[in-house]
Amino acid sequence: MEWALTQVGKPYVWGGTGPGGYDCSGLTMRAWQNAGVSINRTSRDQYKQVRKISYDSMRPGDLIFYGSNPANPDSITHVAMIIGGGQMVEASRPGVPLRVTPIRWSGTMPFAGRP
């Protein structure tokens, strides 16, 4: 999580895995890689790979996933990293630099994830 915060302000880059810019899953993949943990590249694959945890047991570094169908992991379109205090760090979309923002609950999958 601490590494991800050092990336805040860098540009969103579709398919980006750094160091100049990231997309959502590129950011979370590299953040966990910097902590010595290998996770898959895409948000969908990350959700399928991680241990599912309840939202009330989240801790900094856990991942929160967003999709259009809570019953279908293949509907996932976004992943962000919890930093605590109701905040997350994310690479949200083109034109918006990597940022810290309040957690959005709309469109979340049934579980958060812990690599």
Automatic annotation (TrEMBL):
Keywords: Hydrolase, Protease, Thiol protease. One of its GO terms (molecular function) is cysteine-type peptidase activity. Pfam families: NLPC_P60. It comes from the Bacteria. Gene3D superfamilies: endopeptidase domain like (from Nostoc punctiforme). GO terms for biological process: proteolysis. Residues 1-115 form the NlpC/P60 domain. Belongs to the peptidase C40 family. This is NlpC/P60 domain-containing protein. It comes from Cellulomonas bogoriensis 69B4 = DSM 16987.
